[in-house]
Each structure stands twice: as C-alpha cells, then as structure tokens.
C-alpha cells in the first residue's frame, strides 16, 4: 500500500468512530491557433472552438467525458436529472460527445441559470430549527434567505431517510409562510439529487417577494419537518473599502506572468520593511517547445518530426527534405549539413519510391546527427504507407510565434522560470499565522491573478494609513503566488487562450504531433498526493491530452513540488486560498471521491467544518458588499459536493497532510440580472471593462479582492485567539422517565471528543460528528443511564477549561454529565 493510500485509509477509519445509538454497552478561445512556419509543418486544420451547453446523466458520465480529453472543468451544476455545464469544443467534438450519450443543448448561445439555479451546497451548522427526533424521516438541513440586485431568494436543502429509494422515487413538497405568524402556503415540489448512484439531498432556490419566517417540508411517504429561515450574508459589517480614505482599485487590466512577477519584486523593493521575495526552488518547464513538422498529411505515409533542441535554441532552424530518386534498388539514406536534413528515399527494383513512413521515421531518429529527438508515424498509424518526396525543405517550428490577435505586446522570455513569492508581513519570523494565496494554477484563468495582485497592493498601500490593514500586516504573514503556472499562462495570452495546464509534455508518440500542441501539459490541481487519481479517486485523467491529466505520478510537476516545499519550509502557514475561475464557489474538503459508492476522502471534523462555514460567511459577505454579488449557499461547502470529484487537488493535500485550512475559490460566479430574471455566468477572461453590474473582469477583481482581505482578517483573528471554548450537553444532566435525545452545543466552532464508558476523554476518543454531511451534530438516542465525559477544542487549538488530554492528573477537569433513565 502506498503512503498516500495508507494515509487516506487511516483518516477514513477515524471518521467512522462513534455511534448514534448510545447504551451502556472559455470564452476567448483562439479559433485558429498559431500559423505554421512552412506549409507542411502545419498540422491538420483546426475548426473554430466554441462554448456549448451540455447535460450529462451523472458523475460517471462526467468522468468518462473528462477522461476522453474534454474540457468540462468549470461552469458545472448539479441538476435533478444529472449535471449541466459548458465545454470548449469543435463541431467534430460535439459529434463525439453526442455519441457518448451527452446531451448538447443550445450550441450557439451562452446559457444563464434559471430562477431555480441548483448546485452543490453544504451546511455544517444547524441553520434550520427542528426537533431532535431520532425517528424523524425528514430533516431540514438549511433554509436561507438572501437578497441581490433588489430581489429576494429562498434556498432550501433537506433530506429524507428514504431518499435513496428510487421505486417509487420519494418526493418532497415545500411550503413557506409570508412572515412571522402567517400560515404556510405556496406549495412547490423540491428537486431530488443523486450523485454516483447515491442520494444526496432535495434542494431548490426560489425567488420570493417576501421574506418567510418558517418553512414546512412534507415527503411523499408522510414525513414532516419545519424549520426557521436564517439570513445568508445579510447584515454584514462594512468592508475595508467603506473607509473613504482607504486606497483600492490599483489593477487596471489583465497581467501576464512577467508583469505580475515584476510588480511583486517592485513591491518588495518599495516596501522592504513589510515585504520581501521568496524564490521557489523548482524551475518550471518554461515557455518553450521542441520544433516540429508533420510531413505527408495524416495517413499511413505521414511522418512527425520533433527536434532535440528547443525551438528557440536551434530547433526552429532545422529543415527536413524528403528527396525522391528514380534509380532502381536505392537504399534509404540520410544526409546532414548543418541544420539541414535530407532524407534520400529508397526505391524498388523498378525505381519507384519504396520507403515507408515507419522506415523514414527510424532513419531520421537514428541518423540525423542528434538534431531529431523523435520521429514516428502519425498518431496510431503503423506507418505502412510509402513516403512521397517533399516540394522542398520543410522548416521545423515550435509554433510559439506570439501572433495571437489581442495578445499583449512584448516578447515572452524562453527557458525555465523561477517563480517568485511575494511575502508581506511586518513580522516575518514564523510566529504569525501564515496565509498562502495561490493564483492561476490554470493558465486561462486571468481574474485570479489580478484579484491576488489587487489584494497585495491594498496591503502595502494602506498599511500606514488604515488601522484595519495595519492589524492584518502586523498579525499575519502573507505569501502571494500571483501565477503558479507562468508557462501555461503565457501560452494562454500569446497562443491559445483556452490553455488550462502547464507546458510539460508527457505524451508518447501517439499524441505528440503538433496537432495536439494545445492539449499537452499537466493539470496542476490534479497532481497532488491525497485522494489522487493514482489511488482510484475520480475526477483526474490518465490521458496526457485530457484537460484534467494528473501527470505520470503524484507531484511530478515542479509547480506542485514548490507548494509542498513552501508549506514545509514555512510551517506557520495555517491558511491557504487556491484562487480559480469561474463559477462563484467557495469550497474545502472533501474534494474527491471514489465513484463506486461515492466514497469521499475524510470529511473535516464537525468543528473544522463549522469554522470553514463561519469563515466563508465573513469572506462572502465582503464580496457581496461591492456590487451585491451573492455566492449562494448551494455553492459553498465540500468541493466534491459543490462541484464534482477532483482527485489530487492541492487543498486536500494541505489540509490532511499539514493541517492547513485550505480553501478553493472559483471567482466570477453567476450574477443575478434583474432585467432578464436570469443568473448570468462569467467566463475565464471576461471583458475587463464589461458591464460593471454583470460580467466584468474589473468588477470581479475588486469584489473578490474584498473577500481575500477578509480572509486575512480571519487569519489574524485566529492567531490572536486565546479564549477557550465552552460546550454543553442539551438537554443536560438529570433524571428522565424514558429514552431521551441529546446533543452537544458549543460556544464557537469546536471539535468535541467524548466517551460514554466512564473513561477520561483523550484525542483518541470518538469525535462528535455531523448527522450527515453538511448537517448539524448527531443526536444521541440514550436508552439507558449514560455518563458523557468530554472536552472541546476550537480551531486555534484552545481547549475547554485548559484540560490537557495528553496527561492524567487528579483534576480531570473535563466536562461530565450523566443522563439517568428511570427503569420501568
């Protein structure tokens, strides 16, 4: 068993301890691609790519489609009959998708989410009040009210214990009142969601004119539950930008990696008392490619040639000429003069051409004086066709000509890149909580980089003039990786806007021709060690031309190695935000599952889950303050519940391996358009000065920078937290005439360790768990006299009553309560 497998197995077992029954027993894609240096170096014609709307039957189909190489990473939504999303595809690929059973909807139009926008959600805290009844068949998980753009919405999530039943399918009906003291009415049917064959919940988002006070849910099998409606992101404190003297809006357009890194270094030079540069040790592949030519089309006579040297280091100077001869029985020969390679084609007894593509490829590979690294038939061809002479020398090219329309001016430096980390903090001695902001793992996601840079600018410009910013800088240690994928980002800016991965090419000959050049690279957010595709988790591909290619092994890429190096060197890093786009989700663990049975990586303890939710509410409230953009409750929680399984993501590794509170953020989510009544989604590269109320790169940068600034305040508060949590058993100790349902409550997000066998609780004792994922704490149905011994630990490590669970002393100052059940 591999180390990561053992770690997952142990973590999974730890989450199963405890019993509920207690007894004393993109948009913007380049449609043409870069031009070729010579006609026969050009790969097959590429059709224009476009965005299409898809519907898949479920997670299994999603995995198959992703494994086939289709780009389905963003814009996905769970709907009652499957998963809907968007993909960047050609017309030929649309045909292939349909052949796989995917429903392609409305090819030409961008799509907007309906009033009943549905997607994964999460709730670790009890937002809806309901009786603690172990026999209840319906549970209200959450009922949230929020407003945006002058319109009110009610989001409801609920579960039934019979939800897995499919024949007949258990339905659920929602009613709500119109305010305190009004009757229930307005009956509507809730949508049932199933993922990988497992019932998840019923949920819906409804547009309402009046805020309800309560809801009532009734299942088709007769179960009934009521809940109190809570506010979502309402009544938030003003953001830092509300201060008239506060400085913001520093970034005025998209930035390629060279500009980002240059500004990071300049900030460190300008503000040496609070900023410095840390250089990551592992250099990237670089914005560079080997030079190639594809000669003879795509049939059995085609030959693909790749240089040994990088294109800019001499590969682009190589020419290959297939020379025909007419004398009989001539052998296949190769002549090299400088960078010119001449292949003298062999003939048969009649003087006709006789050299096959396989033979020519072998000759080039072995007789080209080291100029040619790879030479092979096209893709999976056997190369049995006879090669035709070329009209003259064919120039090899790396295709990095930087001529994409709309790309920024300036030559991109070739060669490996050393990534700088901008570190900001008054006390950079490892004693303050560290926060890692990692942007642009995925190359085409331009807004995360500008959002992160804007946050850095706000820190240094407001440090001396704004009290709240001063608190952040003096109480946190912030690490900014403004672009974690500089090679891919440059390729996105200058060659192919939809590039997602890095530029490391791990493909074998079958996928190494220049027609695949926009499909090479590793998805950096699938290259980590916990819950990885190598261990059988879903959402990563073994195909080197898939946009979710996981790489040949865990941590194969320098970019992912660098993250691990950073958190191991700077052990004070306790928070991390991996900033992505677009989708408008904020999520954490679990991030992946094994599809068969939907077995997730271990879920965080209830205390950590509650802390994530508390932090998310603070962060998202500040996003809303900018222009009323609401990241809805359905888009917050464990990422495998909110979106899909993403095996080998960075958040999973940092949380489970290093105990870091690791968030993932998809900025640029859907914005409600009151003029149309639709939720309108964003894009990877929205127009910078687009509609400031809807889709705008500038507006997204500003509002999500608000959220990052609030994350810094969360970390600063965490670092200063020395107050012990308190907890209680509800109802408390006492004598009861019959079985009773009890639960724990805490004064703040905290993990409870408990025993029911009279022993003292330790860190090895069962943890108080949720009733179900994203639900409040479990209810214990006590049938016999039972003594609960417990203690609580908050997210900062403070322990209730200063109890030390590692030592046994006379005080034993843990909490204790005895539930006495009268004997009949």
TrEMBL record:
Active site: residue positions: 666 (proton donor/acceptor)
Segments forming a coiled coil: none
Domain Peptidase M14 span(s) in chain numbering: 374-708
Protein's UniProt name: Peptidase M14 domain-containing protein
Membrane-spanning intervals of the chain: none
Keywords: Hydrolase, Metalloprotease, Protease, Signal, Zinc
Region named Disordered: 25-47, 802-824
Compositional bias (Basic and acidic residues): 802-812
Cofactor (UniProt): Zn(2+)
Signal peptide range: 1-29
SMART domains in the cross-refs: Zn_pept
């Amino acid at each position: 068993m591999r180390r990561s497998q053992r770690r997952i197995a142990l973590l999974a077992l730890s989450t199963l301890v405890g019993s509920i029954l207690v007894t004393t027993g993109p948009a913007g894609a380049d449609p043409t691609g870069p031009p070729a240096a010579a006609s026969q170096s050009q790969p097959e014609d590429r059709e224009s790519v476009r965005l299409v709307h898809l519907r898949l039957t479920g997670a299994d189909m999603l995995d198959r489609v992703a494994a086939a190489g289709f780009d389905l990473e963003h814009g996905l939504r769970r709907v009652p009959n499957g998963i809907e999303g968007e993909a960047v595809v050609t017309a030929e690929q649309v045909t292939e998708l349909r052949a796989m059973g995917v429903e392609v909807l409305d090819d030409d139009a961008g799509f907007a989410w309906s009033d009943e926008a549905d997607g994964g959600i999460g709730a670790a805290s009890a937002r809806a009040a309901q009786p603690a009844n172990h026999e209840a068949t319906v549970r209200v998980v959450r009922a949230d009210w929020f407003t945006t753009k002058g319109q009110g919405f009610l989001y409801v999530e609920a579960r039934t214990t019979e939800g897995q039943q499919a024949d007949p399918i258990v339905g659920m009906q929602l009613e709500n009142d119109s305010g305190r003291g009004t009757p229930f009415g307005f009956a509507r049917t809730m949508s049932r969601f199933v993922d990988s064959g497992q019932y998840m919940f019923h949920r819906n988002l409804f547009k309402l004119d009046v805020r309800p006070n309560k809801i009532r849910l009734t299942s088709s099998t007769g179960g009934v539950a009521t809940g109190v409606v809570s506010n979502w992101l309402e009544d938030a404190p003003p953001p830092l930008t509300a201060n008239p003297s506060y400085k913001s809006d520093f970034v005025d357009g998209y930035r390629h990696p060279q500009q980002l890194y240059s500004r990071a270094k300049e900030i460190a030079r300008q503000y040496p008392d609070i900023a410095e540069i840390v250089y990551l040790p592992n250099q990237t592949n670089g914005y560079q490619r080997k030079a190639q030519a594809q000669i003879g089309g795509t049939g059995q006579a085609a030959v693909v040639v790749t240089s040994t040297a990088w294109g800019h280091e001499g590969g682009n100077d190589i020419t290959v000429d297939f020379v025909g001869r007419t004398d009989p029985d001539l052998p296949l020969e190769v002549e090299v003069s400088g960078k010119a390679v001449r292949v003298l084609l062999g003939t048969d007894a009649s003087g006709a051409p006789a050299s096959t593509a396989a033979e020519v490829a072998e000759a080039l590979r072995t007789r080209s004086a080291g100029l040619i690294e790879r030479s092979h038939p096209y893709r999976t061809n056997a190369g049995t066709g006879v090669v035709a002479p070329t009209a003259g020398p064919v120039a090899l090219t790396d295709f990095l000509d930087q001529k994409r329309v709309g790309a920024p001016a300036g030559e991109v430096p070739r060669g490996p890149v050393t990534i700088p980390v901008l570190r900001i903090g008054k006390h950079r001695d490892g004693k303050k909580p560290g926060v890692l902001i990692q942007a642009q793992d995925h190359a085409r996601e331009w807004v995360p980089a500008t959002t992160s840079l804007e946050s850095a600018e706000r820190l240094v410009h407001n440090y001396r003039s704004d009290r709240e910013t001063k608190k952040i800088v003096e109480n946190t240690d912030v690490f900014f990786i403004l672009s974690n994928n500089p090679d891919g980002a440059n390729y996105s800016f200058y060659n192919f806007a939809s590039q997602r991965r890095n530029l490391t090419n791990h493909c074998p000959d079958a996928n190494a021709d220049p027609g695949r050049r926009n499909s090479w690279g590793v998805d950096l957010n699938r290259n980590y060690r916990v819950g990885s595709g190598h261990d059988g988790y879903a959402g990563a591909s073994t195909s080197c031309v898939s946009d979710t290619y996981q790489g040949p092994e865990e941590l194969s890429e320098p970019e992912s190695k660098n993250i691990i190096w950073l958190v191991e060197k700077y052990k004070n890093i306790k928070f991390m935000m991996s900033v992505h786009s677009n989708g408008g989700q904020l999520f954490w663990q679990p991030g992946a599952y094994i599809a068969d049975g939907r077995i997730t990586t271990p879920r965080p303890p209830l205390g950590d889950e509650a802390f994530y939710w508390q932090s998310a509410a603070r962060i998202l409230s500040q996003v809303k303050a900018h222009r009323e953009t609401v990241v809805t409750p359905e888009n917050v929680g464990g990422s495998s519940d909110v979106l899909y399984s993403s095996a080998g993501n960075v958040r999973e590794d940092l949380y489970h391996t290093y105990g870091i509170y690791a968030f993932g953020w998809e900025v640029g989510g859907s914005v409600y358009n009151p003029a149309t009544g639709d939720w309108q989604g964003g894009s990877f590269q929205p127009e910078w000065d687009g509609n400031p109320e809807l889709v705008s790169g500038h507006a997204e940068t500003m509002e999500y920078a608000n959220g990052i600034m609030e994350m810094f305040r969360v970390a600063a508060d965490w670092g200063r937290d020395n107050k012990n949590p308190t907890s209680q058993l509800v109802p408390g100790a006492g004598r009861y005439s019959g079985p009773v349902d009890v639960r724990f409550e805490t004064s703040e997000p905290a993990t409870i360790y408990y025993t029911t066998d009279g022993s003292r609780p330790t860190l090895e004792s069962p943890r108080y768990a949720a009733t179900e994922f994203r639900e409040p704490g479990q209810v214990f149905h006590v049938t016999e006299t039972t003594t609960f011994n417990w203690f609580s630990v908050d997210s900062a490590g403070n322990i209730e009553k200063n109890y030390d669970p590692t030592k046994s002393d006379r005080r034993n100052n843990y909490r204790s309560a005895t539930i006495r059940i009268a004997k009949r």
